[in-house]
UniProtKB/TrEMBL annotation:
InterPro entries: Ferrochelatase, Ferrochelatase_C, Ferrochelatase_N. The lineage of its organism: Bacteria, Pseudomonadati, Bacteroidota, Flavobacteriia, Flavobacteriales. Its EC number is 4.98.1.1. Belongs to the ferrochelatase family. This is Ferrochelatase.
Length: 340
């Protein structure tokens, strides 16, 4: 008898709409996750519910409106997630494999999707968070919630997990293909901009609680292979090698910080510095994101463009995320098949 398999794709999430109420609901769920803001329960509740969300929701709603408006009124992260789900479904249409998509925060919710999967009665479930580099606040949070829901099923099937794939050849190849539309030699400098994390979160990977002691910007080793900073630098080296970009011609940087205790260098400050140096054209990669979203389209594409122009630069070009590229679809299919 053939196994009946369910594949659970998980991405971060998006508000249902740019309305302030929807953005407020999304941010409340997102920022109250103890893996995202890893402080005491009471401190997190006071900080998020009384300070961050009330002040940030109206501002974020305007930014989300710009994002939705740039993509025909829908979230690109959700749109590309649905396309990935559909195209992977086509790949497995003659097999007993069902592809599901859920968001860690917002809709389609993990609760609803996991409830539907329980009723389907799978023999095996593959949980596939769509984050190339492991971080506790992204992959860790998605896996924790999915497995917490699944553990309450009366019949718990065989489970397999894809935790990270920063060095997957298909993932790297897709980024390289995306970059081929740009003449890299025309740019004054290249940015590899990853979503930021509090320094304390990468420190927690290590027994000595100090990421700086582990050569994370130079090599991947037995100790740092689960460190987000280390895998971000390693991803960059793989892409740069394939594209022939010398180390002196690029900078690994981190965006979307909430305070100055996050991973450095900060992407916006790198953009500003290159503008002041007289650079006219920058090219930015966002390898931590498999689908274009607020952080790529708006933060890099619009906000960093404004910063660069303000300090003398002319253009910041953004290499598109993996989105619905055929190589990315094939890569996901292969990763799934390797676990069947």
């Amino acid at each position: 008898m053939k196994k009946k398999v369910g594949v659970l794709l998980i991405n971060l999430g998006t508000p249902d709409s740019p309305k302030v109420s929807d953005v407020r609901r999304y941010l409340t769920e997102f920022l109250n996750d103890p893996r995202v803001i890893d402080i005491s329960w009471l401190g997190r509740k006071l900080l998020v519910n009384l300070i961050i969300v009330p002040f940030r929701a109206p501002k974020s709603a305007k930014i989300y409106k710009a994002l939705f408006d740039s993509n025909n009124g829908v979230s690109p992260l959700l749109e590309y997630g649905e396309i990935l789900k559909a195209k992977l479904g086509d790949k497995f249409q003659n097999e007993d494999v069902t592809i599901e998509l859920a968001m860690r925060y917002g809709n389609p919710s993990l609760n609803e999707v996991c409830a539907r999967m329980e009723k389907a009665g799978y023999d095996e479930v593959i949980v596939f968070p769509l984050f190339p580099q492991y971080a506790s606040s992204s992959t860790g949070s998605a896996l924790e919630k999915a497995l917490r829901l699944i553990r309450n099923w009366y019949v718990i099937p065989e489970l397999k997990v894809i935790s990270q794939y920063w060095d997957n050849p298909g993932y790297i190849n897709t980024i390289v293909e995306r970059a081929k539309k740009y003449n890299i030699s025309e740019y004054d400098h290249i940015l590899f901009s990853y979503h930021g994390l509090p320094v304390r979160q990468v420190d927690k990977v290590y027994e000595d609680r100090n990421c700086d002691n582990h050569d994370c910007d130079k090599e991947i080793n037995e100790e740092n292979r689960w460190c987000y900073k280390a895998t971000s630098y390693a991803t960059t080296r793989l892409i740069a090698e394939r594209l022939g970009i010398a180390e002196k011609d690029y900078t690994v940087c981190f965006q979307s910080r909430l305070d100055n205790e996050w991973l450095e260098p900060f992407s916006d400050k790198v953009v500003e510095a290159w503008g002041k140096k007289g650079a006219k054209k920058l090219l930015a990669f966002s390898p931590a994101f498999v689908a274009d979203c607020l952080e790529t389209t708006i933060e890099i594409g619009d906000e960093y463009q404004e910063i660069f122009e303000k300090h003398g630069g002319e253009r910041v070009d953004l290499v598109e995320s993996l989105n619905d590229h055929p190589l990315w679809i094939d890569t996901c299919e292969k990763m799934i098949r390797e676990r069947l």
